[in-house]
Amino acid sequence: MTLLEGELAAYLVISFIKGAMEVLDAFYPNCKNTDSFCLPSNSSQRERVYSMRCRLTIIPLLSLFLCSLVLLSCGSQTKPSNLEGTLSEISSIEGSELPKYLENLDRVDPIAPYYKDPATKESTLQFFSSLTRSENVARVILDNADKFGVRPSLAFALALEESNFQVDAINKNGDSVDRGLFQLNSKSYPKLAVQDFYDPEMNARYGISHLKSCLSEAGNEVAGLAMYNAGNGRVTRGATPKKTLNYISRIFAYEDNISSLFAAKVMAANRPATPGLAKLVAESVSMGLMADSAQKN
After folding, report:
1. Running along the chain, 297 residues long, what does each successive block of 10 average in pLDDT?
2. Is 221 helix (H, G, I), strand (E, B) or coil?
3. Measured by CB atoms within 10 angstroms of the end CB, which terminus of the chain is less buried, N or C?
């Protein structure tokens, strides 16, 4: 069993325990609270619930202990990974070089290498086809993200926020209309015919090209996404509206979720296509599981 499989097993065990507790509460919704346990008034039912809760109190402790053993075992069997090399590299950096090192760190793209690799291209396309409910939509976004040098996860997160992957999405803004996957504005693209806005390939090409232009002009992703949503002029003047900040926050949250799902569904089933992605698989899945657990709690 690998470290990734151990983490997934631990998550499933904990989810099972929480589910069992919820089932018990559902069977006895009208019980009265005591010092330690929620017990029904009927004596025979009280004994039964008390016994079940005692077992469910012990099971988590045993489960956590067993999961710890599994994770330790997985960790001991894992071969030295790129994480060790990264830590070694960082530890050798002089204090005076730290600011420069941080400035040069780029966000790793976990998806593009898999789409470019013939061995994993089809599984990558299938994943995003399921996400968008359309192979054509998935393909045009992946192809144009690659063409313009935009992270696929960011491009898909933007399309999810703009149109929920609906090629016929439309939003009227008084004197203009936003249409299609990336909600291209009629005033920004006056030469496009109405039907062109609803063509997935054309909309993705113009939308991702415009996103790339905004990112390049802004110099960072936050300002770039703000320009895409609110326009270059408002952002440059420092008049970015609050709704645009919320818009950016949602896109980054979508991107994190997409990357975590991709790591669990595609990356975990294939060998890493590029150095450093083995570390990213574990990190992405761990972050996704912790976020999911936090939401349930």
Report:
1. 53 56 51 45 58 55 56 48 54 68 64 94 96 97 97 97 97 92 95 95 97 94 93 83 94 94 89 50 48 45
2. helix
3. C
**And the tokens for 122?**
């089809």
In a domain, 96, yes or no: no
Report pLDDT for 14.
57
Model confidence pTM above 0.90? no
Same-domain pairing of 65 and 113: no
Token pair of 41, please?
A: 């008034």
Cα separation, 87 vs 165, whole angstroms: 40
Determine, yes or no, domain membership for 118: yes
Euclidean distance between CA atoms 269 and 213, whole angstroms = 35
Looking at residue 37, what is its pLDDT? 43
Task: Find the CATH number of the domain harbouring 177.
Answer: 1.10.530.10
- The pairing of strands 184-185 and 177-179 is antiparallel
- Residue 190 and residue 62 share a domain: no
> 110, exposed or middle or buried, with CB in 10 Å at 0-12, 13-18, 19+?
buried
pLDDT at 236: 82
Query: What whole-number distance in Å separates Cα of residue 63 and Cα of residue 11?
Result: 11
Statement to judge: residues 141 and 276 lie in one domain:
yes
Range of the domain at 145: 101-296
Assigned domain for 153 exists? yes
Helix 152-163 / helix 135-148 crossing angle, nearest 10 deg: 130
Return the sign of the alpha-carbon dihedral for residues 266, 269, 274, 278.
Answer: positive
Domain count, the chain: 2
